[in-house]
Design brief:
Layout lengths: L1 E5 L4 H12 L4 E5 L6 H11 L4 E4 L5 H10 L2 E6 L6 H6 L1 H22 L3 E7 L23 H19 L4 E7 L1 E3 L18 H9 L6 E4 L11 E2 L1 E3 H13 L6 E7 L5 E2 H12 L5 E4 L8 E2 L4 H7 L7 H14 L7
Parallel strand pairs: 1-2, 1-4, 2-3, 4-5, 5-6, 6-11, 7-10, 8-13, 9-14
Antiparallel strand pairs: 9-12
Helix pairs in contact: 1-2, 1-8, 3-5, 5-6, 7-9, 7-11, 9-11
This protein binds nicotinamide-adenine-dinucleotide and UDP-4-deoxy-4-formamido-beta-L-arabinopyranose.
């Protein structure tokens, strides 16, 4: 009996695979390494003292999926594989719809053929678009996404909801992550973006290590206490434990649900800079520029449904997130590349 993890070599996938191995699950990974390095899996194996089965293949490859389902007795699929850059999705929408939407459809079809009927999908707070109000609960309106990446997540959620009506034996959980940050406390696993990071914490980390000169803060004229954008940052270790909780609390007899994974607390860009400065004992060079197109003022979760339905809540605070992000950056200045 094993759990199939798509995209298991990536940032959130590698932390979740480690958590699964640590509780003695058998894990099978499919990853095409389009945004990951196999080094992450070497390190997962070192930390766990146990190796996952790894297939370097694409989820769009039906034959690869068929052979994995034929070789292993898979009970559940945790589906991380997909493309995640907002800016890249605007430049190349078809790649995003193909990987994220078609990829999920291919996977789902092969699951159904193989009789595997439990799926946990990596969704995102991006499905809420421009929020009318915060905190965002699962009852909040979805839609109004501002880029093809966000739209691809919303489309997949809709496809999964429709699929679950036609396949009432399937249990499908869409976990809507807020802003994942941080790294494994060992400093061996973390986020390894290609090129110049788009996201705030990898950007700050690279300023702190001297790879980038100055952080540009996108706007200080939002209707927030210090004028900068507010987000719900969540430690990647908490996200990993959220997936284990979702596995443990899947509804028997089939169901579709969407659940927020956030802390329920919002922090501003300036809060992040200060917390990182404290963690790294350094000063972060920054300058304020205009707003980034598509950004919202505030996005943070009501995380009560996850507490009720999964018995899960985030336990790591902002200082721990920044400490572990810095520990990863400091120990791996060039990421997984030697
Ligand atoms: P990541 O890029 O580090 O991991 C994704 C993994 O999937 C990579 O290892 C990549 O090589 C693999 N992959 C991509 N396309 C594939 C394909 N067609 N076939 C096989 N493997 C493929 O990203 P992450 O941050 O770990 O995110 C994991 C999931 O969570 C993604 O679906 C992402 O959209 C979603 N998510 C991420 C965030 C975030 O900010 N990191 C927030 C919300 C949701
Ligand atoms: C956070 C805050 C920026 C960079 C994105 C995706 C979302 C989800 C998570 C996958 C904002 C500010 C940022 C910088 C800055 N991904 N910022 N200077 O935009 O909330 O969410 O990643 O699902 O879909 O949109 O995250 O880290 O880019 O930005 O001032 O150089 O930091 O304006 O307020 P975001 P982020």
């Amino acid at each position: 009996m094993a759990i199939l993890v798509t995209g298991g070599a990536g940032y959130i996938g590698s932390h979740t695979v480690l958590a699964l191995l640590e509780r003695d699950e058998d894990v099978v990974i499919i990853d095409n390494l389009s945004n990951a390095s196999q080094e992450s899996l070497t390190r997962v194996t070192e930390l766990a003292g146990k190796a996952p089965a790894v297939y370097i293949a694409d989820i769009l490859d039906r034959e690869a999926l068929k052979s994995i389902f034929a070789r292993h007795t898979i009970t559940d699929v945790i589906h991380f594989a997909g493309l995640k850059s907002v800016s890249e999705s605007i430049k190349n929408p078809l790649a995003y719809y193909e990987n994220n939407v078609v990829g999920t459809m291919v996977l789902l079809n092969e699951m159904a053929l193989a009789g595997v009927n439990s799926l946990i999908f990596s969704s995102s707070a991006t499905v809420y678009g421009h929020p009318d109000k915060v905190p965002l609960s699962e009852q909040s309106r979805t839609g109004g996404t501002t880029n093809p990446y966000g739209t691809s997540k919303l489309m997949v959620e809709q496809i999964l909801a429709d699929f679950s009506v036609a396949h009432p034996d399937f249990t499908i959980t869409c976990l809507r992550y807020f802003n994942p940050v941080g790294a494994h406390p060992s400093g061996r696993l973390g986020e390894d973006p290609n090129g110049i990071p788009n996201n705030l914490v990898p950007y700050i980390s690279q300023v702190a290590i001297g790879k980038l000169e100055c952080l540009t803060v996108f706007g200080n004229d939002y209707p927030t206490p210090d004028g900068t954008g507010i987000r719900d940052y969540i430690h990647v270790m908490d996200l990993a434990s959220g997936h284990l909780a979702a596995l443990d609390h899947k509804a028997e007899g089939g169901a579709f649900k969407a659940i927020n994974l956030g802390t329920g607390v919002g922090y501003s860009v300036i809060d992040l800079i200060k917390a990182f400065e404290k963690a790294a004992q350094t000063t972060i060079n920054y300058r304020i520029v205009g707003r980034r197109s598509g950004d919202v003022a505030e996005c943070w979760s009501d995380s009560s449904l996850a507490r009720q339905q999964l018995g899960w809540q985030a336990i790591r605070n902002l200082d721990e997130m920044m400490r572990d992000a810095w520990n990863w950056q400091k120990n791996n200045p060039t990421g997984y590349r030697a």
